[in-house]
Amino acid sequence: MASNFELSERSSPKQHRISPRAEKEEVDYMQRAQWLRAALLGANDGLVTVASLMMGVGSIKEDVKAMLLVGFAGLVAGACSMAIGEFVSVCTQRDIETAQMKRAIETETSLSAIDEQDEEEKKERLPNPGQAALASALAFSVGAAMPLLAAVFIENHKVRMAVVAIVATLALLVFGVTGAVLGKTSVFKSSVRVVIGGWMAMVLTFGLTKFIGSEAMQI
């Protein structure tokens, strides 16, 4: 019959603990996945915004310069807005986490070397506002550049509009599939949601701009 000491050793939770290295690898993987999903969302936002603007202007203007100009303005404005918004948001998150870490340290009567090492690792993993702002701006710009590049060399107005719509649809499909793979969700449902959402934005912008533009021309 095994002694109580032997039984306690067999059932010790230490055997089921995840090693610090494995835990760190898991956290790093989750952070990479979050960054990839954030990049996809930023690119999707840039694509839908600029494609919708170009479709809206194209509904009343056949000049390619007008479409490219409004698309470029949308790219710059959107990238700046994304960068500033992400910078402010991540700064706020970093301040909250830093304050929480300080409160946790103040409540401890003494810290071991392991605890101090953990605190240093936590500080290193705090979000970087500048990096987040740059990533958001780049992701938005990449998505926004797709409809611009699709339309820049096409002179025929109807063909240009069709190409912008097709390129936007294909890119939205790719974003939907990639997001579903990263999130381990249904590829079909994710793709349909993304494509339908993008098409709704483009159709509404096209229709409302054409209606308002036609009414304004009659005044």
Automatic annotation (TrEMBL):
It comes from the Eukaryota. Keywords: Ion transport, Iron, Iron transport, Membrane, Transmembrane, Transmembrane helix, Transport, Vacuole. The chain crosses the membrane at residues 35-54, 66-84, 132-154, 161-182, 194-213. Belongs to the CCC1 family. The lineage of its organism: Eukaryota, Viridiplantae, Streptophyta, Embryophyta, Tracheophyta. This is Vacuolar iron transporter. Pfam families: VIT1. The keyword Nucleotide-binding does not apply. It is a multi-pass membrane protein. Its main location: membrane. It is found in: Vacuole membrane. It catalyses: Fe(2+)(in) = Fe(2+)(out). Residues 1-24 are annotated as: Disordered. Vacuolar Fe(2+) uptake transporter.
